[in-house]
Write a structure and sequence with these properties.
With about 900 residues, the chain is an alpha/beta fold. Among the domains are: about 1-30 and about 495-575, no CATH class; about 110-155; about 330-450, no CATH class; about 610-820, Alpha-Beta Plaits, CATH 3.30.70.1230; about 825-920, no CATH class. Helices cover about 50% and strands about 20% of the residues. It has 30 helices and 32 strands. Strands 23, 24, 25, 26, 27, 28, 29, 30, 31 and 32 form a 10-stranded mixed β-sheet that branches. Strands 1, 2, 5, 8, 9, 17 and 18 form a 7-stranded mixed β-sheet that branches. A 4-stranded mixed β-sheet has the order 6-13-14-15, with no helix packed on it. Strand 11 (about 250-255) and strand 12 (about 255-260) form a beta hairpin. Helix 1 (about 5-15) packs antiparallel against helix 19 and helix 13 (about 385-405) packs antiparallel against helix 15 (about 420-450). The protein is elongated. The two termini are about 50 Å apart. The model has no long low-confidence stretch (mean pLDDT about 85).
């Protein structure tokens, strides 16, 4: 059981933590993640018209008369608002009320006129009419007057619903509510038909996979309001189980038709009523009309089909773009007060010297006949332009009257009557104060509501429409519409991902850590690794959310990982201990004995960091190894590599070298660290020569084994690999690059994963030289000038070109390492002497002599492919008076200028180097 702990614990952790999908924990983490996003851009064109404490105090007892909203609509219309949206459910008709203003001012006037007319008629009848018809004529007059008085009295009772209904129509772009449910009152046939024909979305397509809630019942605003509004939208917005309001639907279904959310409706109208495509994870609005052009708007949906609400962060609801309803309604009151004031001035003769149009007549015409004509169903020869023209004329003539020379004329007419003059001035000043207040208030409000979506909602302390968000514990719910409107207009959305993605991440993290824990025996290191993975996972999930605005469930992977690494660490602490013998055996496979001894003797030395060391770097690679992978299956390829790498690595470590790493068939090693040695170059070259010798022996061994039956102690996969190699005439050929110099060597990586390795430009050069073997067709070993300088005469080398390697500016001399001098024949030594002479001729520019020399060398040793290379190079280019360029695809390009670091005294001598080759091979 202990053997599989690293698998069992992650499995149990993930299973248990997967139950977190049934909690609100991830939603709360998503709330925190949202705080890291840039603030939602609040558009000036979205304004809350708040029924706040100031409105309740100024207007009166809540709920308000619907005439208040009617007057507010008229004001907003005049000030150029884009839309009026009522987050107020007008579900019942209001009671008729006595028109106090009418009863107090107009009704007595009508009654007085009617009784005066009655008195005049009776007098006439008594004096002029004939006796036989008096009774009949009196009855007729009485009936006429009685009907007129009844008619006048009828106007003393007003219906506030009619007033709001008319002004909903007058505003043109007004929106009221729908509330979907299952237990709602039945609708009459007319209303049902109106919902279908006028309020449902027409240009919409909904995929079968889309999650659109469907309801069997609906409770709309009363029909008077519903029929006179532009459209209606639903206000259903349910809080999550923890009480937080985080999401809402933009589309709902009722009786087979689709309806928009309350704010979605005016936004659709604003965007040109685009075609709507509802899919599983998004809503697409096709060809929307934005200020900067026409384009599609894509609204990402959460997994339940809702839009996640992104509230303006660090901003209270009361800091939103808003205006109290009182400020809107007050303009209407000021306007009426201005009209009454003008009427008072007329009745008191103030217009005696006024020859222009009477301002109050413009007002009466606009608010009376023209307004009524615009909202009537009868066709009338008036337009909104007429209405605005009359209202503008009202303000213009009023301004001219109050600030013109009328007052001066009046005062001149009562010259000498100081009391009357004072009264005239006081009365005109009062009128001007009302007018100035009206104009200033109107202009201030216009700056807020012009071209704006005005959302009517409650936030007064005496109201009850409050909810809970991540930013406010008592949040006025109408603010949801404000947030959604700003999201739609700024195209700023967040969404989530399927729950199973977080489970998959949890599986990867937990099982990944489980496998890592097998390699990490130290309890402290396990805790560090677990903590790092835990922190990294959270940071990566957060970064992913910040970049994509897609929340991936964080609770399941992070909590399950925490449980996993704590449980595994505790169990390992109890059941395992350090074993020096095991450490020695494990590290001895890739490190020299000195390094292993240092780790065992001084574990504290195993720390991050490096030091500058003079040493030699070695890079090896098998020529055309990719061809092996085409012939061998995975198991055979691994067996062959283990056979090869074991032999070669042992030779490196026998020369006190350290195997840094393996990269496929390549070996990366270093000689001269961590145990410093003066003869690192000689040791590295000795290892390289021994490796090439071992390569020859390995190829012979492969042929020998493949020719017979499989040895008992050999793996079948390795034997099969040998057979396939021989059948396909494949042999092992190793290319080696060596470079010496100052490099950084030390333990590098992280506290949890580190390796004794090397780095630096000199390391990179060794890597380049390994590949350059291919360009020069060497016997397999290329060394740098620095390595050559550190060698004694015990090694045989031959000079090649001075070259510029890719990414290395300084020209360097390349040398091919041939072998040990002690093992060379006289013929070989003579051959190399002739080689050096040929190279001097070539670099001195004596190309014909050099060509003859290289041909002579090649004729002596037809296996010398380096000689063949120089014959081809000279014949193809230098003998013809040209040099290779990048366009020739020859692997090198020739710079005809002398190297910058050449000794100036060599110019004109046999030592002069005419130019430098630039290697094109990377």
């Amino acid at each position: 059981m202990k053997k599989y702990t690293y698998l069992l614990i992650p499995f149990i952790s993930v299973i248990i933590c997967s139950l977190l999908i049934f909690t609100s924990l991830d939603k709360q983490i998503a709330d925190l993640f949202q705080r890291t996003l840039p603030k939602l851009k609040e558009s000036d064109s979205v304004v809350m018209v708040n029924i706040d404490d100031s409105s309740v105090n100024e207007i009166g007892t809540w709920p308000f008369s619907r005439e208040i909203y009617a007057d507010a609509l008229v004001v907003l219309k005049e000030l150029g608002s884009e839309a009026a949206i009522f987050d107020l459910s007008f579900l019942d008709k209001s009671q008729a009320k006595v028109n106090q203003e009418y009863v107090e001012s107009e009704l007595p006037h009508y009654v007085d006129e009617d009784f005066s007319e009655l008195s005049q008629n009776i007098t006439w009848l008594l004096t002029e009419a004939e006796g036989d018809t008096i009774q009949e004529d009196v009855s007729s007059v009485m009936e006429t007057v009685q009907n007129r008085i009844k008619t006048a009295i009828q106007y003393s009772v007003r219906n506030a619903d009619d007033s709001l209904a008319n002004d909903l129509k007058f505003f043109e772009n007004s929106y009221v509510t729908l509330t979907f449910g299952t237990e709602t009152p039945d609708l009459d046939e007319t209303t049902e038909q109106y919902l279908t024909d006028n309020l449902s979305l027409k240009n919409i397509s909904v995929d079968k996979s889309a999650k659109v809630p469907s309801y069997s019942g609906v409770e709309p605003a009363i029909s008077d309001f519903l029929f006179n509004s532009k459209r209606a939208g639903f206000v259903n917005a349910d809080a999550d189980k923890d009480g937080y309001l985080r999401r809402l639907y933009l589309i709902m279904e009722y009786n087979g038709k689709y309806y928009p959310q309350l704010l979605f409706a005016p936004i659709l109208n604003y965007l040109g009523n685009p075609e709507i495509e509802v899919k599983r994870n998004k809503i697409i609005l096709k060809d929307c009309h934005f200020a900067d052009g026409t384009r599609d708007l894509k609204i990402p949906l959460a997994q339940d089909g809702t839009v996640l609400i992104k509230y303006p962060k660090n901003v209270s609801y009361y800091d939103y773009n808003d205006t109290p309803l009182w400020k809107v309604y007050r303009i209407r009151l000021l306007e009426k007060a201005m009209a009454d004031s003008l009427q008072f001035l007329k009745e008191n003769g103030f217009f005696s010297y006024w020859d222009d149009d009477l301002p109050y007549e413009y007002y009466d015409a606009a608010t009376g006949y023209i307004h009524d004509a615009l909202v009537s169903d009868n066709e009338a020869d008036v337009t909104y332009d007429d209405y605005f023209a009359y209202k503008e004329a009202f303000y213009e003539t009023t301004r001219n009257f109050l600030y013109g020379d009328t007052e001066k004329k009046l005062l001149d007419s009562v010259s000498g009557d100081d009391e009357t003059a004072a009264w005239i001035s006081e009365t005109m000043n009062t009128a001007r104060e009302i007018f100035d207040d009206l104009v200033n208030s109107r202009e201030a409000l216009k700056n807020i509501v012009k071209n704006s979506f005005c959302i009517f909602g409650t936030c007064a302390t005496s109201t009850t429409d409050f909810g809970l968000t991540q930013y406010e514990e008592k949040y006025p719910n109408p603010g949801v519409h404000y947030a959604i409107a700003n999201q739609l207009l700024s195209e700023d959305f967040v969404t989530d991902s399927p729950w199973w993605i977080s489970v998959i991440i949890a599986i990867l993290l937990c099982f990944g850590y489980g496998f890592c824990s097998v390699k990490i025996k130290s309890t402290g290191k396990q805790l560090v690794v677990g903590g790092l993975i835990e922190g990294t996972a959270i940071i990566l999930l957060l970064l992913f959310f910040i970049i994509t605005k897609i929340y991936i469930g964080t609770a399941i992977p992070t909590i399950s990982l925490a449980i996993t690494f704590i449980a595994i660490t505790i169990l390992n602490f109890i059941s395992t201990s350090k074993d020096k013998k095991f450490i020695t055996g494990a590290f001895s496979q890739c490190l020299s004995k000195e390094v292993v001894d240092e780790i065992v003797a001084n574990p504290s030395s195993f720390k991050l960091g490096g030091e500058r060391v003079e040493m030699t770097a070695m890079f090896t690679d098998i020529q055309k190894f990719s061809g092996f992978s085409e012939l061998l299956n995975a198991a055979q390829l691994v067996a062959l590599l283990n056979f090869y790498l074991t032999k070669m690595s042992n030779l490196i470590m026998e020369e006190r070298g350290t195997v840094d790493k393996y990269e496929g068939d390549a070996i990366i090693a270093l000689v001269g660290a961590p145990v410093k040695m003066e003869d690192h170059a000689a040791r590295a070259c000795a290892a390289a020569i021994r490796m090439k010798k071992a390569e020859v022996e390995m190829n012979k061994y492969i042929i020998e084994i493949a020719a017979g039956s499989k040895p008992d102690d050999m793996e079948q996969d390795l034997y099969d690999a040998f057979k396939i190699m021989v059948q396909n005439k494949r042999t092992l050929f190793t290319r080696i690059g060596l470079n010496s110099g100052e490099m950084i060597a030390g333990y590098m990586g992280s506290e949890n994963k580190k390796n004794y390795t090397m780095m630096g430009n000199n390391v990179n050069l060794a890597s380049r030289l390994e590949g350059v073997n291919k360009q020069y067709h060497t016997g397999g070993i290329l060394i740098s000038e620095a390595t050559r300088t550190d060698l004694s005469d015990s090694f045989l080398v031959r000079s090649l070109d001075r070259v510029q390697v890719v990414n290395v500016k300084t020209p360097i001399r390349l040398y091919e390492l041939i072998g040990f001098k002690s093992e060379a024949t006289d013929t070989k030594l003579t051959y190399l002497e002739e080689w050096e002479k040929a190279m001097h001729k070539f670099e001195a520019g004596d190309y014909s002599t050099a060509l003859s020399a290289f041909k002579a060398l090649y004729s002596q040793d037809s296996e010398d492919k380096v000689a063949a290379y120089y014959v081809e190079l000279i014949e193809k280019f230098f003998a013809k008076g040209k040099v290779p360029t990048e366009a020739d695809d020859f692997g090198v390009a020739y710079n005809t200028e002398n190297p910058s670091d050449m000794n100036p005294e060599w110019v004109g001598t046999k030592y002069e180097i005419k130019g430098t080759f630039r290697l094109l091979q990377k």
